UniProtKB/TrEMBL annotation:
This is Glucose/galactose MFS transporter. PROSITE patterns: MFS (PS50850). It comes from the Bacteria. SUPFAM superfamilies: MFS general substrate transporter. It is a multi-pass membrane protein. Keywords: Cell inner membrane, Cell membrane, Membrane, Sugar transport, Transmembrane, Transmembrane helix, Transport. The chain crosses the membrane at residues 7-26, 46-66, 73-98, 104-125, 137-159, 179-198, 228-249, 269-285, 292-311, 317-339, 346-367, 373-395. Its main location: membrane. Belongs to the major facilitator superfamily. FHS transporter (TC 2.A.1.7) family.
Length: 401
């Protein structure tokens, strides 16, 4: 495949990255809305993350599915489930919080399929030396979506003023979420129709041809690569980092005495930091090793968080939100390091790695429990453990064995 032929499929993949970036961030940004609407406690509100990210437990079966039916039909399947899930969210709300969460799990499975399919496809669209840069490029558009999504939520999903201990009727909540969720379902359905008429190159055929011709040799299974498993654990803890900041921002700001802000709207600065960092990362990763950049980002993020904990007021808030700049290229760098030299096993390996996105489903309720017992500062301090592991993976664990 010539270099020019990479451009169109990269544009298609960037569109998909935008889509699941928007949906993922929108879902996380609705935590405050549903907490107030349904009168949830600190643990219950994190179940929105649990139901969404818990579906990533299906990532390995999804990897085998992609291996069987190919990237194109996998993308169709993912888009179809996303549309279905958003349409189902409307009647789901009528059955209460857990009825809504059931609908969330449907479009979450669609996001999982797109996520597992997209990363190895982007890695394969060019030389391995620039794979981290390509993933960062597509993730930059993903970040644009993460900036827009909180604004979308803050403008359209607004809880009316409630008295002490009051919650909304399910039918009222249904009316509030109706048009935003139907609109996303319709847009997804339209993208599905457009994608149906597009022809993506079959990367799998080229990988298998290279293997048969002896150009490259690989182990018999993705499960035999140690750096895949260590990379999977890196994604697990990274999810605690990326999602932990926005999930606990409102309570952290309150703890630091910050009042009079729209916490959902303020998150645009966190996600904006991710966007800026990923744009810069496209160029930085062409000059420095991916492992070096990951180490620097983990140390920088830990330093920003430490400063936020020590300081008070607006300085603490901006340091807390500013961690997004260092979190920006962690995901694509971890993914590219974990998928290095996998060849025809990349789709299944991507499933192994993506499974660990359930880190958000597991770590958020645990951190919510820590908050209940010891306060929000103790909860967000768990991120220091996650940063430490990322330094280990960058310096030792990512080496191919």
């Amino acid at each position: 495949m010539s270099k020019n032929k990479y451009l169109f499929p990269l544009i298609v993949m960037a569109t998909l990255f935008f889509m699941f970036g928007f949906i993922t961030t929108m879902n996380n940004s609705t935590i405050a809305f549903f907490k107030d609407a349904f009168g949830l406690n600190d643990v219950q509100k994190q179940f929105l993350n649990t139901f969404f990210y818990g579906t990533y437990a299906l990532s390995i079966p999804v990897g085998f599915l992609i291996n069987k039916i190919g990237y194109r039909f996998s993308i169709f399947t993912g888009l179809g489930l996303i549309a279905l899930g958003f349409f189902a969210s409307i009647p789901g709300v009528a059955f209460g919080y857990y009825g809504f969460l059931s609908a969330v799990s449907i479009f979450a499975v669609g996001v999982v399929i797109l996520q597992v399919a997209a990363a190895p496809y982007v890695v394969a669209l060019g030389p391995k030396e620039s794979s981290a840069s390509r993933l960062t490029l597509t993730n930059a558009l993903n970040s644009v979506a993460t900036v827009i999504a909180p604004i979308f939520v803050s403008l359209l999903l607004v809880v009316p003023e409630l008295g002490e201990g009051e919650t909304l009727e399910n039918t009222v909540i249904q009316g509030i979420v109706k048009w935003p969720y139907i609109s996303i379902g319709l847009i997804t359905a339209a993208i599905l129709v457009i994608m149906f008429f597009l022809k993506l190159p079959n990367i799998k055929d080229e990988q298998e041809k290279a293997e048969a011709e002896g150009v490259v040799k690989h182990k018999s299974s993705a499960f035999k690569y140690t750096h895949v498993w260590l990379g999977s654990l890196a994604i697990f803890v990274y999810m605690g980092i990326e999602i932990g900041i926005p999930s606990f921002f409102e309570d952290f700001a309150s703890e630091k005495g910050i009042t009079g802000i729209n916490s959902v709207d303020m998150l645009k600065y966190y996600w904006g930091g991710l966007m800026v960092g990923r744009v810069l990362g496209i160029f930085i990763l062409q000059k420095f090793k991916a492992s070096t950049i990951l180490t620097a980002c983990a140390i920088g993020g830990a330093a920003m968080l430490g400063g936020a904990i020590v300081m008070d007021g607006n300085i603490a808030m901006w340091l807390f939100l500013g961690t997004g700049l260092f979190h920006s290229i962690m995901w694509p760098v971890i993914y590219s390091l974990a998928l290095e030299d996998l060849g025809p096993h990349a789709d299944v390996a991507s499933g192994i790695i993506a499974t660990s996105v359930i880190g958000a489903a597991i770590l958020m309720p645990i951190m919510g429990g820590i908050q209940t017992m010891a306060g929000v500062i103790a909860a967000v301090s768990a991120l220091f453990v996650y940063y430490l592991y990322l330094v280990f993976f960058a310096t030792k664990g990512s080496k191919i064995r």
